[in-house]
Design brief:
Keywords: Methyltransferase, Transferase. The chain has seven helices and seven strands. It is α/β, with parallel strands linked by helices and about 200 residues long. The chain has one domain: Rossmann fold. It has a seven-stranded mixed β-sheet with strand order 3-2-1-4-5-7-6. A hairpin with a 4-residue loop joins strand 6 and strand 7. The termini are far apart.
Length: about 200
């Protein structure tokens, strides 16, 4: 993966953030309360949206993305600490977080089940897990197209799996899904879970 990906990612996201993505992020992140863990914070695009968090611990394994996030830390009203770690091995104690946020990141996590187990471990009982993700589409032709494109797409886009079934992974996890909203004909999902 080249150093160009963080720049291209930011340029791609800007027009989307001016439209429906901004509304989706705002609504989702307003639900995050107390001490918050953000998984794969990337360039910090979510940081300015935190209003009800006391503190955000944000993990991002890509050093170039993390570096780009510093400008968005300054735009946040919330205290934000970043860490260069992966979601599959979180450096936090059990039952630490009131809320967990992950937006457009589960597609890139190499071992998503292990990451979900870690999220379950570090989230307090009753804690919220809030995700906004793109997923494999249910429509046969489009889903198959995602399957065909994924090997090349992963190489070009920092390990992104176009065809990841994040909702299916959540259904098999120790988390309880409480709400799912579908956007862009099911390509994007906003998912609210609770740690029971």
């Amino acid at each position: 993966m080249g150093n160009w990906f963080p720049f291209v990612y930011d340029m791609t996201m800007k027009p989307l953030e001016r439209t429906k993505f901004k509304k989706i992020r705002t609504k989702l992140i307003n639900e995050a309360e107390g001490r918050v863990l953000e998984i794969g914070s990337g360039s910090g695009i979510n940081f300015p949206y935190y209003k009800n968090a006391v503190r955000v611990d944000a993990i991002e394994p890509n050093p170039m993305m993390k570096k780009r996030s510093y400008k968005n830390i300054k735009k946040s009203q919330t205290s934000i600490q970043t860490y260069s770690v992966k979601a599959e091995k979180l450096p936090f104690a059990d039952n630490t977080f009131d809320s967990v946020v992950a937006t457009l990141v589960f597609c890139t996590i190499p071992k998503p089940i292990q990451a979900l187990n870690e999220i379950h471990r570090v989230t307090k009982p009753g804690g919220k897990i809030l995700l906004f993700e793109h997923v494999r589409m249910n429509q046969a032709f489009l889903g198959k197209t995602q399957d065909v494109l994924t090997p090349l797409w992963k190489k070009v886009c920092d390990g992104c799996h176009l065809n990841r079934d994040t909702l299916g992974l959540l259904e098999k996890s120790n988390l309880t899904i409480v709400n799912v909203e579908f956007f862009y004909k099911g390509l994007f999902l906003s998912i609210a879970c609770v740690n029971d």
